[in-house]
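To whoever is on call:

I kicked off a structure prediction for a single chain this morning and the downstream step that reads the tokens threw a length-mismatch warning. I double-checked the sequence; it's 66 residues and nothing unusual in it as far as I can see. Pasting both halves so you can look.
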Amino acid sequence: MTTPESDKPLVTVRAALVLTLGVLVGVGAGLLAGAAGRGLPESVLSGCAAAAAGLLLFHQLIAKDD
């Protein structure tokens, strides 16, 4: 029995998990940079860089659905 196309989820569980973890890493890094006394632009850039690195890391670590 097959499911119709409309019943398929828009985002897989793996993609949602990878994105959520990447965002959490970025927010954490941005908050830590802000707490260290950096300015807002530098904190945002630090958070974005950490989020990108986190996305790449978690994309490699979390197994794909087969």
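Update from on-call: the warning came from a stale cache, not from the record. Cleared it. Sanity check on the structure: Helices lie at 13-35, 40-61.
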